[in-house]
Amino acid sequence: MDSPRRIVIVGGGAGGLHLATRLGRKLGRGGQFLITLVDRSSTHVWKPLLHEVAAGTLDTGVEQLGYIPQANRSGFRYWPGEMTGLDRAARTVRLAALRDSEGRQVLPERDLPYDILVIAVGSTANDFGIPGVAEYARLIDSRAQADAFNDALRAEILRTLAGPPEGTLDIAIVGAGATGVELSAELNTALDFAAAYGLPGLRKRMRLTLVETAPRILGALPERVAASSQAELERQGVTVLTNAQVSEVERGALVLKDGRRIPATLKVWAAGIRAPDFLKNLDGLETTRNNQLVIRPTLQTTLDDAVYAIGDCASLIPPGEERPLGATAQVAQQQAIHLARSLAGVVAGQPPTPFNYSHKGALVALGRYNAFGSLGKRGLLGGGLFVQGKFAQLSYASLYRRHQLGLFGFWRSMLYWAADLLRHASRPKVKLD
Ligand SMILES: Cc1cc2nc3c(=O)[nH]c(=O)nc-3n(C[C@H](O)[C@H](O)[C@H](O)COP(=O)(O)OP(=O)(O)OC[C@H]3O[C@@H](n4cnc5c(N)ncnc54)[C@H](O)[C@@H]3O)c2cc1C
To answer: Which listed residue, of 129, 160, 278, 313, carries a Cα 20 to 30 Å from 398's Cα?
Structure first.
């Protein structure tokens, strides 16, 4: 019998995990194909939930999904490891040595062979080389970073409570895209919940500043969504600074280009996006200035037909357009669904099919208070149908529900949703211990 054809997917996030699940179900069970998902983490948490993890309003223990059970249920194989390089001639992916939590080597550096490779390793915020960001600001691009921010937040809450009554809890968030805006509102939500559990007054002592270089917040969303979101944040007490460029981050403050200093004990960097550095020199593949792999409409990299890339780590300018698709879960998920279908054809001898993005709208959730968005395709004025309030909140929640539906199927998703309802009714709504 011929050895199975190997499809390797690196990165089990919003795009990669969907792709592995779909391909596993389509091709993984017959013995002809070996679908392998590689991730440096052993569990998946949907990235758009990370601001809730950071604020302490989401229990990651409950929302995380282990790759091993998902692989077992869906017909793919999970392989732990961090991709560091690629040999295109030998068709192997280089994985770093795997170490345990005490730094002891579990597995040596390895090469994993592939016939088709899909890279889906995501992105992080971009520090644009600004001094002090790496030392003094926190990112919330991975579960570990979001957990670390939450630990620091709880420590600062305790310090504030133990300090003088006029002491404040100063937090600054740089970057007013969806991540920065949603985190600002979620922190307010967390402190409201904390008040209900016996910590009143804390909310009034938080001074939260959201800093944005551009003339307005939420630059990728229609103006009306941005204006409504800014008004809501200001109603919550957030100071929103636009046209404000950070030139340096210090231990206790942000320094702006115009000389202003924003005191902040906790600083979050949520500006820009950048793909991982190892992609920059990935055996000659073409990349953008921020390390994204340049791909064609078939989602293949420009210089190698056997190497595909999807999600935040890929840059695709759709035919007839000038700008690349945005780094969103919506794009990553649609690319994964398309590629699962296309690759099923490729392994049967057909050519890969081109991907067409269908913009379904954009939503931003402002904690428990409100949500705004535009649904449908972008019209002449740059937006679709404006939505707000409960309907927008439900539409926003449905994004995660759709993600679960793709991973678990209808009946298991229903069980998850029922369990969520019971948990929400019975457990504390914010992590305080
Ligand atoms: C706080 C926050 C809120 C957001 N809200 C929204 C929203 O409301 N709507 C929306 O559409 N988008 C939102 N986004 C953006 C969205 O999360 C991303 O666009 C999406 O997750 C990208 O999917 P991906 O599969 O490309 O990467 P990711 O989901 O980031 O997954 C990448 C995976 O690759 C793994 N990995 C990374 N490097 C390596 C390596 N070297 N080797 C092996 N594995 C590796 C990681 O562990 C991870 O599992 C938000 C992002 C953040 C941070």
So the answer is: 313
